[in-house]
User: Fold these one by one.
Assistant:
Number 1:
Amino acid sequence: MSTANMIYGVPLQLFQIVVGLVCLAAFVGVNAVLLVWMERKVAGHFQRRPGPFEVGPYGLLQTVADAVKLIAKQIFVPEGADKMLYWTAPFLAFLPVFVTLLPIPWGDILVVQKLDLGILLILAFSGIGVLSLCLAGWASNNKWSILGAARAVSQSVAYEIPLLISVLTVVFMTGTLNLSTVVEAQGSWPWEWLGASQPLAFIIYFTCAVAETNRAPFDLPEAESELTAGFHTEYSGMGFGLFFLAEYANMIVVCGVAAALFLGGWRGPVADGWWWFLLKVYALIFVMMWFRWTYPRVRFDQLLNIAWKWLIPLAILNLLVTAALVKLFSINYYV
């Protein structure tokens, strides 16, 4: 291998991945703190809760107090639980997030790895999340946890289908599975983004993204008022903390993919750059928080009806129309 492709004796590509993962790990930690504070502020304003405004200036110290409480809590394994699977589950929920963040383009050159199959990689590793919920419910030896895990599997199967089909419409139009190429194929103005030509696919994707991250009104796997906390009822301390971090990191992933596929990614009016990407991602996260603190939780039959009776038929119809237009009028001119 040429020395031009080596840094300190390490292959350049490997060096980039290691540095990228370190940066992503730091970002995931900072992002969790920011989103906890943001979630409390949104809840405080939407539901007139005074708590998020009381601890420290602008409620900033409440997040610190929560983090200290979480770290200081006793960690234990419930009686009769499968210890190996019990502790495997939270790590299995958290670690795949780093792989899904690798191909997301934060800017023109601000991407850890430009992968030709980046979209496929994200979809494949996102599926591991539901496996971790299933393990957590099974290994906890708790009936509420089992019910939460069963709900998580049913919900994931139902909503992954329309999500995949909505992503497929974008792939049909751009002819690529590379997220960076999809962003480059879009313009800087909103009417040049794929969300303008595929509004139905965008709405279906975002609805499914809310369900896939188990956020209200689709938080049936946790459902505090019915199942205590569902699949993570028996987890305390940093066991629960890893599930918590994974949820916020997954929100970044699904909103980052939405921004890249439908909202032009780092492209925006006046000047393209990473600031547009972050603005779009956090705007979508704000909408998810808005949903949580506004809409009541749907019943489980309603949850499945939305997916099987509405989202899947609409997604298939949209895909067929898109495929016909692409074939008849050669619409895939983006690449």
Number 2:
Amino acid sequence: MPLKPSQLSTALGAPLKPVYLISGDEPLQAMESADRVRAAAREQGFGERVVMTVEPGFDWSALAAEAAATSLFAERRLLDLRLGTAKPGKAGGAVLADYLKNPPPDTVLLIQSARMDRAAGSAAWVKAVERIGVWVAIWPLAPSEMRGWLVQRLKVRGLVADEAAVALLLERVEGNLLAADQEIAKLALLHPPGPLGVAEVLAAVTGSARYDVNDLADAVRAGDTGRVGRVLDGLRGEGVEPTLVAWALVREARLLARLATGGKADALWRGIPPQRRRPVEQAARRWQGPRARLLVLLAARADRVVKGQAAGDPWDELLQLSLVLGGRALFPPAWVLAAETGRVLA
């Protein structure tokens, strides 16, 4: 089973494993995890580093050649293989699997990859990594995790923020760990170690929150009305197409309705990390009974408005749908739907 980044330090004891795989799309955690592996390698005498970046036309025999080569400069080496968003394919997978059957002594292989889906994670070479090495899978932090992460990073810098200051900082940098790290570094430069309040954060931190449609789904599941509004505003400001937002909300409505009515939802779980499934199941409990099916009707109406097939403002419709799915409808959001179906969501 893949480790979390926070578990990597304990997996870097002496001696190092022959291979470490870091996968995920969150850049700060990926960068820091790879840095920890490199630092541990240096401390344990792996003095030479060979970097190989997989690009179109990459010759996978180069990895086998490096594995067979004897270092001229150091007894121990770190092979730093950067896949990025590339996939090894059949040829690369075979080379990696062969390498991992009999990894060269005095060599550590560090593989960095974008997020791996279920199919990629089932490849023979990945299974070999799990068998003889360490796989760290990185996921974006959930809002509750982000809060704890901010507090810990501030603490490392000697800053003790009060609740309001943490909430403001979270609002301004949510979903963007690189920006958060930079803002905390700035706060540490501007203020001596000790208490930190809202005024200091307000004066120093600019808004750099970054969202994707999964953040909106998280806010909906949590029933967090304020965050729903912030995320939707953020998505609109970043130029995200309303059709993409509608797609995410329609999927959410179908999933909640399916779970609420006791149906199987295997296909709809696709793309939702296991750690995020429990909040979905909890959100589905708001919609027990036949009224859950109205969620799908409301979502379908919003989808029609977004596609120009029904009258209305797309973003208003998406906000209404988000609030209803979150169980926090603040105004009669579905009067058109009520007219169409004779029923009202409340």
